[in-house]
Amino acid sequence: MRATQQPTAHHRVRKSVAIPLLGGVVLAGAIFAVLTLTHHSNGHGVLDRAEKIPTSAIMTSRQLVAASVKSQRDALAPLVDSATPPGRLLPAGSALALVPMTWHQSGNFANAMADIHIPGEAQQKYELGFVRLSGSWRVTFIQGSS
Amino acid sequence: MIRRHVVLVAAISMLASTLMIMPLASRASADSPASCATSQLQPIASNNTSGEPILLVHGITSSPAVFDHSVGGGASLAKRLEALAGVSVWTFDYHSVSLDWVTNPSIGPALATAIGCLESSTGYHVAIVDHSMGGLATQYAMAQNDDQGSPDASNVSGVITIGTPFEGSKLLSAIKNGAGDIKYSNPVEGATIQAYLSYCAGRLDDNFCPLTNILDSPVGTALEYDSPQIRSLPKWPSYVPVFDIAGNMQLKVNIGPLHFTGSVGDGAGSVDSATAHDTTGQPLVITCPVTLLHPMQTLACEHTVLPHNATVVGRVVTEVEKLDGIDTQTATTTTSTTAPTSTGPSASPAATLLASDSSGDSIASTFSVGPPKLVSASGFTDATLSNCDPMDPSRSVATKIVINTRATSSLTETVDFSFLAPLTNPGSMSFVMDYSNGAQCDAESAGLAGVSFKVGPNAPNTFTMYAIDIDAVSPDTPAGDLQALGDWLIQQPSLTIEGNAAGGPFWGPRVITCEGDINNTSYLVPAGQLPASINTGLSSDSCSPQLTQNQ
Hints:
The complex is a heterodimer of chains A (146) and B (551). Chain A is of the alpha+beta class and 146 residues long. Helices cover 30% and strands 25% of the residues of chain A. Chain A folds into two domains: 3-38, no CATH class; 55-144, Nuclear Transport Factor 2, Chain: A, CATH 3.10.450. In chain A, β4 and β5 (124-133) form a beta hairpin. Chain A is globular. With 551 residues, chain B is of the alpha+beta class. Among the domains of chain B are: 16-166 and 301-330, 3-Layer(aba) Sandwich (Rossmann fold), CATH 3.40.50; 351-529, no CATH class. Chain B has eleven helices and 21 strands. In chain B, a hairpin with a 4-residue loop joins β10 (351-357) and β11 (362-367). Chain B is globular, with a radius of gyration of 26 Å.
């Protein structure tokens, strides 16, 4: 069974903090706001604290909607590119924007959420994976959220 | 079970004349098995300590409870073993220090003491079932001397490991040392691991990402692939039978509308690492398809759930019973540290082809030398691979694969095929489908990882796919002859293979046309039928394709 239904250590700590009755509602609201801003969960366990998206990752993600297939695929990590069948990653005219404060990094690996709009379709949330190679972030997956 | 000691007490003592010659177990009555119990070593049932001992050793961030997890609502592994006649089941607990390396006195050394005590007090060799790092703790313990001065390995009847990363974890190494520094078995493995680890970044308390919580611990360093700590472990004793069980999550990685599939092992270690010490020649590899962003997918072969996977549990029980057979055969031997002849470690499967369908059913079969292996799974397919190990120089150049599907007049199935590691050159494998019976080609995609295509509706349930193995004809085949071979195959009538512009007809990612008019038999190409001018490096063609359909 996945751990998604289990409280995280972080949450347990929060629960153990005694909150004075006076002002408790305000404080609880503040805690909720902090948790909302620093975590996001998509049903796969809880993500650790989110960070600001590095500029190089933003630049790389923009390549995914470049006009040429080659430019799009240059955004991929080389191994990922070689394993992926030939073809365009996103249709021409697509738009992509990384969602602020959704960057989660562990060493040289990271993920972030993106809003992608494909012409003729409704905007969708995607999760993007990244690997840092020679100081540059490259894409490892583009996964729709549904 | 478990080689029994029939230790004769030699009449060398002043009291010899007053003693009966008796089995060690009886002799130890004053030092009963129950006396072995410590805070770390506990019997599953306190009233059953004298049978042939089975010792369960857990892994990292775990505890003995991992063996007491209900399996499909039924009995746990521990309970299943306890139900065997004449055994006593014990657990070794090191959970409080499980983030330390196995040299911690409370892990490897304490386990050695436990094994020695169980052996000497019961008179039976100990069967050990390890999960994860428990296998490495056992490896360490077996090299320690017991109180008789013999290596603890001589007290062990056999070992069954579940997800033990004998060679360490490439996943851990990739996380800690930099993604570009790891030598992957092939590009697909590397790509899949990179996608998986980027998904796991920041995901705490997620069973899909079991390594996340050990990164900063001593064991997180020790378990890096081929680490100094791994290399400094004592050699695994060759005379101890080992049966390895590995998880093999086949991760489908989406790149927008495209995808590839590759193995991330059980999420903690790779299949080759977890089967490195198997002596049976046929380790059990549990394969399951997984995806990213699939909230409630069943992680049947993930590292932490393997000990309660029904197939695993059933097989562990069977293997323990086999050790019983070993016991029977050697019951008349006296206690000795003389090692039986080793059968030697067997090679890992050279390559495995995984098929999964849109319903989530999956099958996996290993290309192996010998009779074709019949594989089946509920629902989706029965498929028989016509043998042919890509690494075997005597195999066919082309392999025919017959697939049965559930496609009906209204049901379309998506079938994914992907090669698992290791292939010397995954780009050398080409797939050709016979579309003449209704398999659709509009959704086909092919890459280094394999192919994906749709079947039905209105398609017969059986159709054919060919895997044409070019580069693996022989590792030594000259490049010019490979080209000649490719040219020859292309020239055969009614076989059409279209290569990508950059890679040529047989190299690199390729597109398989939808126009192949494939004859069901003429493209099984034994090497002996190739033109003599092509040097395949083959000396014979003993790999005759055989097809069997499992209806």
